[in-house]
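= Paired protein data =
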Amino acid sequence: MKARRFVLLLALAALPALGVAQEKPLAIRGARVVTVSGPVIEKGTVLVERGRIVAVGADVAVPAGATVVDGTGKTLYPGLVDALTTLGLAEVSAVSATMDTTEVGDMNPQAHTWVALHPDSELIPVARANGITTVLSAPAGGLVSGQSALVRLAGTTPASMVVKAPVALHAVYPSGQPPFDVSRLFDEPELKTLSERVKEQEKNQKKALDRLANLFAEAKANAASQLDASRPAPETNLALEGLAPFARGEAPVVIRADDEKEIRASVRFASDHGLKLVIAGGLEAWRCTDVLKEKDVAVLLKVERLPSRESDPYDAPYANASALQRAGVRFAIVSDDSENVRNLPYEAAMAAAYGLTEEQALRAITLSPAEIFGASDRIGSIAAGREANLVLASGDILDTRTQVTQVFIEGVPQSLETRHTRLYDRYKDRP
């Protein structure tokens, strides 16, 4: 993230949250309530007070003075959760000034996405208008990208948007491939044999893995020395201090890996160093269900992708989620994007078309990601005590024909106006 903007937003993050609070009780009555964590209530009432759900059921009493929303003929869902995005950090990929996902260098464990969030991003209302109310805003680039935050899609400052931070440390499993050099295509004496290239790749990969291992070892040693009263206190090292919970396996480390070999190697690396691993990408996770289940490794899946091998079935990425479901591997379905977070329900719908039930697909974009990142007591379901992030829709949220009619975040109704709707209204009557 750019240095000046980083410092400015760090100061802004320290300001009080400026979000709008719910003023009086809210009751959504008569809708088909899909709780996710429990049974569907065909004609239910959800009562909300002070931003929290206080009662859910078929016969909930509505207090006098409450705002009543008629949900008759509609379906009420918990707000959708996208567990891997760059939303709030990336705006227009072709304009570098609007991209704040990546720090300089390849080892940036100290980079915190929650101080670099852009609350006025045009992409946030677009995602929110299709039912997404919470996202994991994650850094990108390098070997260790930084730390992510769970973010609600409402608020006027970075601090007012944060649900939980830090959530996870993000890294990339090193491929060992050197940067591509076009000149090698034209300089035959410089061409290497296949075996030489493989050896070079393995050497580079080992160096990168050793750097990762040393980073976690240093974080553990630094934390231990701080607790040892018999030794002089170590110099303050914010990067190492922030890494301590990840190095001790108390908080998840998200490693991006798609290839079967890389996924299995990531699991071994995490096991050897006591890390709580989550795999991001997981294109070939269906080939690794044995080790993922054995080590209880969760996977963040993007469904709509192409197969990685020519010999793979065309639908391997689509059926990936159902293979994990059958094997008992924990997973969430993600957009892994910023511009297309709005399409999260359709990623889940594709998985439902290739083996998941609709209930399992919906859970993969609500309660499952909340469980993976330790926030299921706050988001991901409609139950007493949870944040009142609610989506009222005309039908099945996984169906592209369904219209989201109302969105509530912490009990506060959100505008469904977006850049898309403004442009539509502006040009719809143009000759």
Remarks:
- The mean pLDDT is 90.
- The chain has twelve helices and 18 strands.
- The longest helix spans residues 194-227.
